[in-house]
Structures are given as structure tokens and as C-alpha cells.
Write a structure and sequence with these properties.
This protein is α+β, with helices and mostly antiparallel strands and about 900 residues long. The protein has 30 helices and 32 strands. The strands form 6 sheets. Strands 23-24-26-27-28-29-30-31 form an 8-stranded mixed barrel, surrounded by 4 helices. Strands 1, 2, 3, 4, 5 and 6 form a 6-stranded antiparallel β-sheet that branches. It has a 5-stranded antiparallel β-sheet with strand order 12-11-15-14-13, with helices on both faces. GO terms for molecular function: catalytic activity.
Length: about 900
């Protein structure tokens, strides 16, 4: 067949093709239309959902903006309230140094954004017309603001109006915006700021009436804020990321009414979606207008639906069309799709803009910057056209960097300070290299901002050595300095004696209990400032923890050290602290140790100072004691040693329990076993120590509540293994100390332990000494009634040893009265003892209580005790104490 026949044959086929041959393009078109319609519907629904989200986000951001601004302003008012309290409570006149110290302690610049300074203007009366003059007397920080000293606030109507409003109402007053002379923006204009004011009154309770406020006015306190950083930091984050903001002071002059703005106000509020909010603070109203940025809303899902739906529709149509399409069309389509996803130079530029590092490109010839990425423009400002070496704060370092690049082609990475657009320093880690761009040599500088990292390192170093509340050295730094002083003496680097002082506030817990921990913290700050002001240069004052302070005084003899300690004590005693209408006076006990000989250790010195301080408290508090070799110090050291040994015994489970049986004297009763538990301690060498050696130290150093809880927990958890009779044990008596009685949670602990170990409460008898019961009668009665209501029995131990036993007995709901052994010991030779025992037995039985005689050491006494009506007896004549079963060695 020739070519002509072939052509004719194709024509004939085309003319005679059945209708189903056209199905492929028709199906492809139908699939494409259906897919696009479905994609459009899904996109419409996604747009509706996202639009609702955007509306909700705009509304919530607009509602949050006033609250954030109010919080920033209220934080400023809190700083002023703190300084107002200082003026009300301080007994010393304020000066610039003290004012600076208080501001440094408050650290206003760390948490008040836009903070400029805190000032105090003293009130004077003009001699000519009697008007009020308010001149700045103290400023902090003073550096850079010296020009404001002596400035009269009355010359600024906005500030004077705020001052008078604050004085008459004793509430924070906000000024209208005004130019701050200390700051200039990049165009050289004075930056706008505001002032928040509160009055300062003379020492005494806070005034409550207008006449009293005006009469006691001392002056005015003020905190100045730059509006741009204050508002910018308050609204930073989601609000400024998603919304444009325009804030205006409703009552300010037109030229200063604009407080903050990120963009010009739109011409049509409704079309732009402007939302209006108001902030009222300090007598002024700020009007906020917020409208969405162009990029607000996450339309990624919508575009993804459109793109993927369209792509799927097209691909499905192409798949159907491909049945009748040629290979050339498929190749052309593949080429188009491949070209669509090719890399481009624009993407590289976007990546460079997103880098967090500072990237600067300069010409190799003149060194002038021709390109800066987004991070560099944000951190350094407009630097295009500047010389690269001019960025360095150290010109010599900048010249050295360019010289190194010229010689070696690179300058190794190192720390440097670069200057931003307003002349402030910025720490960076920078490196320079010579590169080729468009076949021309250039200088490339890459730097990483390390300012925050360096600031954090310095802050951590400061926090590691200082107390966060008072700003004094902490215990770790104090002990390091003391250890260094001892090493200097040992190495003959220092020969002069020095003194270690331990200062403990008296009755500090009362202030915490009455006025709360915030009041206690403020008192510690005030006392720290007062003590530090009276020290010599070189002395080291530290807060060791709680209400305890330490002082190292160098180059002093014993007389000078005692005088300095007395001076510190008097300084604390003279301090008057006021809080919420209450006035407190405090005192301190001071222990002094002289370091005038070699061979002293850090542990010894701290222990001696603590011991001397405790002796000062024992002597009546508010006094100074110097450590020496007297009997009191020796006894105190011995008690401290026993207290430490007892702590170790508790930690290592070396406490022991013995039991002594209590015998029934009435033979007609059914036999029953009653015991009293007795405490012992196993020492480090395995010997047994009786309680008389360590209980005194335990009571003095507050260890008895822990010991009593150990006895209760151990006895009840092993109740069936205390005595050979096992579960048939009728009663187990446990002694409670005075410190445990004062523990509000003791009753809960006893009842929870009984329930946990399923011990019937009627089998437990808790013994309370007469002297403890009388010391805090109301608290003891409340606890006794609660335990008796649960089924426990209560015994009054050592009855008769006190001075008012019979007078208090009628008020104590007890089940058992144990007669003190001093009345039993000489029963056969002292008729008065028989009379007392008879009286106690009669009164006890009248009260419905059982009576027990202690210290029965002679069998002959038993018949006498029966005749006198005593129910039980206890002593060596009846049973010698034995170790409880579960602690006996096999």
C-alpha cells in the first residue's frame, strides 16, 4: 500500500469512527468539571470555617490588649506602693544612697518594660504666692538623669495634674504623654513617655482622709516609662503579630495624643474591621483601635484544598485524556510539571532572610555594607552604606578583623561588641571571610547574638552567691569567704584576728503568723538594709536562711567585735516595721566567736557561733553572747552533739523500745496484761543509751515530735509483737512530749495510724505529763476529747509533781491518773505521802478514772496501796523492763 492509500485509509476510518471513540475526551471533560466543582465546595466550606476562626481570634486579641496594658501599669503602681511603705515605716531620713539601694533591690528595670527611672520630689512652698513646688531630690538610676535633679514638676501641667490627683486620693495617677528629654528616636525627636505617681507621707500609719493626706504630704514618688517599649512589650506576641494597633490618650493634647501605633488608621473603620477598646487607669483613658494585618489567618488548608483538588481533577482528566493522547503531549506535560518545581534564586534569598544569624555583605574595596538580612536589620537597624569595621565598638578590633581578611582571606570567630543604630552595644560571636559574588570580591560577616546568653551567665553567677530576697550574700558565699579567711591565716597571708557573728531575730515567727510571709519578707529586706548601713568597709553581711544572718568582721579585737555586735543589735532594736496598720518592733540575739588562733575549722566556728547565739536566747533574748569555755557553752555543745546523734539514730533506725508491765492490785478482776513502752537508743558502738542522756537535747532542738511519731508508728505497726501475750495485750501506754502536744496534726496522725494497722483504739493509752497539760490546757483538752471520742484512753502521768494539780484535775477529761513516784518511794516512813495518795485515789475514782502508783520498788508497799484504793502498780518490784519481742535478737 502506498502513502496516498494510507492517508485515504485514515480518512476513511475517521469518517466512520463509531460514537464511543469520542468517549475519552468527553469523560475527561466531565471528570474535570466534577472535580473542580467538588474542590470549589470544599474550599468554600474551609473558607467559612477559617473566617470564623479569624473573627474569633481578632475578638480575643482585641479583648486581651487592654488587660495586658493595665497589668503593665499596675506593676508600676506596685513598685510605687513598695516605696511608699518604705517612707511610712523608715525611722531614718532618706538620702540618695538609700534611695538607690531600695531601687536596686526592687529591680524595676528587670520586670517593668520601658522603665526609665524612679524619682522622689520633695514638696516645698513658694515664698511669694504659697503654691506647691515639687523638686526632684532623689533619682534612680541617677546616671544619665542628673539634669532632672532640682527640676520643678509644677512646670509641667500634665505631670502636676497627675501629682495632685494622686495626693488627694492616695491612688496611682497617670500623666498625659509628654516628651522624655533623656531619649531621642532615630529622627532625633524626643521619645514620648508617661509618669505614674503616688504621694509619699511622713512616717506613721497610712493616712485615711483628704485633710490628713494633705497635712502629712512629704512629696511625690514617680516612675517614668517610655511608651514605645512599654506598650510594645505588653502587646508583643500574638497581638502585634496578627493585629495593627493605634492607641491614643483621650484627654491629651492633639500633638501628644498618640500613645502607640503600628500603622496609619484606615479611612473606613468598618471595612478594615477596626475594633475599639478602652483602658482606664490613674484618671486617664486610652482608646485602642485594633484591626487585622493583611496576613491574618491561616489559609494554608484552603490553598491546599484548592491546589490538591485542582491537581487531582486535572490528573484524573489527563489520565482519561491520555487514552487517546499522543506520547508527545505526555512528554510536554511532564516537562511543564518538572519546570514548576525547579529551584530558583528567589528561594535562596528567602532562606537567607529567615536565618536567625546576622548576615552582612560588604564590598571588598571600600568595606561598605551593601546587604543585611532580616536578623541583621532587626538587631542593628539601618546599616546599609556603613563601613563594616565601624560596627565594632572597639575600632582597633574592627581594623584587625579587616586586616586579617585582607591577609588570610578570613578572620576567625570570636566574641565582640557591635553597635546598633542607637549606639547601644550588642555582644556577638562573629566571623569574617572573603567571598566571590557575581565574579567580584566581597566581605561576608556572619554573627550570632550572645547578649542574652552573657546576661544569663552573669545573672546565674550573681544568684549563686546572693540571697534573692535581701540582696545580701547567701550561706554558700558566706562559708566560702569564711573558709578563705581561715586559709589566709593558715598560710600567713593574714595575721589580724577577725570575728564571726551569728544573728538570729527574736520572735520572727509572730510577724509571719500575724501578717503573713510577705510582711516577713519585707521586714527582712528592711533589716538587711539597716544592718548593712552601719557596717564598716570590708565587713561581710549575709543571710544564712530564714531569719538568720551572719557577719564577718575583719581586723578587730575582742573589744571591737563586741562593740560592733552591740551596734548591730541596737540597729535592729531601733528599727520599727509597719505593715497594714500594725507596728512591730524586733530584736535579735547575737553570738560572737573570735578567730584569733590557728587550728580552727569552719565546722567548729559555725557550731560555736550557733551555740553562743542560743545562750543569748536562753539569757532572755535581745543580747550578745561571746563564745568561751564556760559551763553553759560546754553544756550547749554537749546537747548539740546528742541532738546530732539522735538524728543519726532516727535515720539509721537505731531507736529501741522496752516495755514494763503495769500490774492489777484488785485480785477479783479478770487477768489482763497492761504495759508501758519505754524509749532507748543504740549508740554507734552497739551499747544501749537510756533516755535521760538524750531527751533533754531532743526537746531543746525540736526533735521530740519526730521521736514520738516514730514510737507511735513503730508500736502500732508491730502491736501483736510487743509482748509475749500477742493480740491479747489489753493496753499499751505511749508517752507524748510537750512539743508533740502542740502539734496540730498529731491527733490525725494517731487516728490514721490506728486505722492503717487495724489496732483497736481502746487498747492504746496515751500518757501526758501534768506539767505539759497545765501549760496549754485548752489545746490539750481539745486533743484529749477528740482521741477519747475515737476510743483511746488518756493517762495523766507524774501526777503530783506540779504545783496546781488538784485545781486543774477537774478540767482534764482523763481515764488514768499515775501518781508521781516521789510519793510512793517513802510510803512506809512518810505519813504525808499516804495522805496524798489516799486523796488522789479518792478524787480519781470520783472522776471515774483508774489510779496507778509508779516507782513501786518494794513488795511491802502493795498491801498499803491496795488499802488506799490504788488500782494498778508499776515498778522494779513487780517487773523490770524488757525489750519488745520484734526487736529482740534471736
Amino acid at each position: 500500500m502506498d502513502e496516498e492509500d494510507t492517508v485515504r485509509g485514515h480518512d476513511g476510518i475517521a469518517a466512520g469512527v463509531p460514537s464511543y471513540r469520542f468517549a475519552s475526551p468527553l469523560w475527561a471533560l466531565a471528570a474535570l468539571l466534577a472535580g473542580l466543582l467538588l474542590t470549589a465546595e470544599l474550599a468554600r466550606r474551609e473558607w467559612k470555617v477559617e473566617h470564623q476562626k479569624v473573627e474569633s481570634l481578632q475578638r480575643s486579641l482585641a479583648d486581651a490588649a487592654p488587660q495586658r496594658l493595665r497589668e503593665s501599669l499596675e506593676n508600676t503602681a506596685l513598685v510605687l506602693r513598695s516605696m511608699q511603705t518604705v517612707f511610712l515605716s523608715s525611722s531614718q531620713p532618706m538620702d540618695q544612697a538609700a534611695f538607690t539601694d531600695y531601687q536596686r533591690n526592687l529591680r524595676s528595670g528587670d520586670w517593668l518594660h520601658g522603665y526609665v527611672l524612679t524619682g522622689f520630689a520633695g514638696r516645698e512652698t513658694a515664698p511669694d504666692d504659697g503654691r506647691g513646688i515639687y523638686r526632684y531630690l532623689f533619682l534612680a538610676p541617677l546616671q544619665g538623669s542628673e539634669a532632672l535633679l532640682g527640676f520643678d514638676i509644677a512646670s509641667q501641667p500634665e505631670n502636676m495634674d497627675a501629682l495632685l490627683r494622686a495626693r488627694d486620693a492616695d491612688t496611682p495617677a497617670l500623666s498625659a504623654p509628654f516628651p522624655l528629654l533623656q531619649f531621642r528616636d532615630r529622627q532625633g525627636q524626643a521619645a514620648l513617655g508617661v509618669t505614674v505617681r503616688l504621694p509619699a507621707y511622713t512616717r506613721g500609719p497610712a493616712p485615711t482622709t483628704l485633710a490628713e493626706r494633705q497635712a502629712r504630704e512629704l512629696g511625690a514618688l514617680a516612675v517614668s516609662l517610655r511608651l514605645e517599649p512599654m506598650v510594645g512589650n505588653a502587646l508583643k506576641g500574638s497581638i502585634l503579630d496578627h493585629m495593627h494597633v493605634d492607641i491614643r490618650d483621650a484627654g491629651a493634647a492633639p500633638e501628644h495624643a498618640q500613645v502607640f501605633a503600628t500603622a496609619p488608621l484606615p479611612a473606613d473603620d468598618a471595612a478594615a474591621g477596626v475594633r475599639v477598646r478602652r483602658v482606664e487607669f490613674g484618671g486617664r483613658t486610652w482608646e485602642l483601635r485594633l484591626w487585622p494585618r493583611a496576613e491574618l489567618g491561616n489559609w494554608t488548608q484552603l490553598w491546599l484544598i484548592l491546589a490538591s483538588g485542582s491537581a487531582i481533577s486535572v490528573l484524573l482528566a489527563l489520565f482519561l485524556w491520555s487514552q487517546g493522547a499522543t506520547q508527545r503531549r505526555a512528554v510536554d506535560l511532564g516537562r511543564k510539571m518538572s519546570a514548576r518545581f525547579g529551584e530558583s534564586e528567589a528561594r535562596f534569598r528567602v532562606l537567607n532572610e529567615l536565618l536567625p544569624a546576622l548576615v552582612l555583605l560588604a564590598g571588598a574595596g571600600d568595606g561598605r555594607i551593601i546587604h543585611a538580612n532580616h536578623a541583621a536589620r532587626t538587631q542593628l537597624g539601618r546599616v546599609a552604606g556603613m563601613r563594616l569595621d565601624a560596627l565594632f565598638a572597639d575600632p582597633a578590633l574592627g581594623a584587625q578583623a579587616l586586616a586579617a581578611v585582607a591577609d588570610d582571606g578570613h578572620w576567625d570567630s570570636r566574641e565582640a561588641v557591635v553597635l546598633n543604630g542607637i549606639g547601644a552595644g550588642l555582644w556577638v560571636h562573629a566571623a569574617l571571610a572573603r567571598v566571590e559574588v557575581d565574579a567580584a570580591p566581597h566581605l561576608l560577616m556572619v554573627a550570632t547574638d550572645t547578649s542574652a546568653q552573657r546576661e544569663m551567665t552573669e545573672r546565674l553567677r550573681y544568684q549563686a552567691t546572693h540571697d534573692e530576697l535581701t540582696g545580701l550574700c547567701n550561706r554558700r558565699e558566706f562559708e566560702r569567704q569564711l573558709r578563705q579567711a581561715l586559709m589566709n591565716r593558715a598560710g600567713r597571708l593574714a595575721s589580724e584576728p577577725f570575728a564571726l557573728m551569728y544573728i538570729d531575730l527574736d520572735q520572727f515567727k509572730i510577724i509571719n503568723d500575724l501578717s503573713g510571709h510577705m510582711a516577713g519578707d519585707q521586714l527582712l529586706v528592711q533589716l538587711g538594709q539597716a544592718m548593712r548601713g552601719g557596717l564598716r568597709h570590708g565587713d561581710l553581711l549575709a543571710r544564712l536562711g530564714g531569719d538568720e544572718f551572719g557577719l564577718l568582721a575583719f581586723d578587730v579585737d575582742a573589744v571591737q567585735a563586741l562593740a560592733l555586735a552591740e551596734q548591730v543589735r541596737c540597729c535592729i532594736e531601733r528599727s520599727t516595721f509597719m505593715w497594714q496598720g500594725r507596728t512591730y518592733t524586733v530584736s535579735a540575739s547575737v553570738g560572737v566567736v573570735m578567730v584569733d588562733r590557728d587550728g580552727r575549722t569552719l565546722k567548729d566556728l559555725l557550731a560555736w557561733a550557733d551555740s553562743a547565739c542560743y545562750l543569748a536566747k536562753d539569757d532572755g533574748r535581745n543580747r550578745v553572747r561571746v563564745h568561751g569555755d564556760d559551763d553553759d557553752a560546754t553544756r550547749r555543745m554537749g546537747e548539740m552533739e546528742w541532738a546530732n546523734r539522735l538524728r543519726w539514730a532516727l535515720e539509721q533506725d537505731r531507736l529501741l523500745l522496752d516495755y514494763q508491765e503495769v500490774v492489777q492490785l484488785d485480785g477479783t478482776l479478770a487477768p489482763a496484761t497492761h504495759v508501758e513502752l519505754l524509749l532507748r537508743m543504740r549508740d554507734e558502738s552497739g551499747g544501749v543509751v537510756l533516755p535521760g542522756a538524750f531527751l533533754g537535747a531532743a526537746e531543746r532542738y525540736g526533735l521530740m515530735p519526730a521521736v514520738d511519731r516514730w514510737v507511735i508508728r513503730t508500736a502500732l505497726s508491730n502491736f501483736a509483737r510487743l509482748h509475749p501475750c500477742g493480740d491479747t495485750l489489753a493496753t499499751c501506754a505511749i508517752n507524748l512530749s510537750g512539743a508533740s502536744i502542740e502539734d496540730e496534726g498529731l491527733a490525725d496522725f494517731i487516728l490514721d495510724t490506728l486505722e492503717r494497722h487495724a489496732v483497736p483504739p481502746r487498747k492504746v493509752c496515751l500518757e501526758i505529763t501534768e506539767t505539759v497539760a497545765v501549760r496549754d490546757l485548752l489545746r490539750v483538752v481539745r486533743m484529749i476529747e477528740r482521741l477519747r471520742a475515737a476510743g483511746c484512753r488518756i493517762a495523766l502521768d507524774d501526777f503530783g509533781a506540779g504545783m496546781a494539780s488538784f485545781g486543774y484535775l477537774k478540767n482534764l477529761p482523763v481515764d488514768v491518773i499515775k501518781i508521781d513516784g516521789s510519793f510512793v518511794r517513802n510510803l512506809d516512813s512518810d505519813p504525808m505521802n499516804r495522805i496524798i495518795i489516799d486523796a488522789v485515789a479518792r478524787i480519781g475514782h470520783q472522776r471515774g478514772a483508774k489510779v496507778v502508783a509508779e516507782w513501786v520498788e518494794d513488795q511491802r508497799y502493795l498491801e498499803v496501796l491496795r488499802a488506799l484504793g490504788v488500782d494498778y502498780a508499776q515498778g522494779f518490784a513487780l517487773h523490770r523492763s524488757e525489750r519488745v519481742l520484734f526487736q529482740r535478737t534471736p
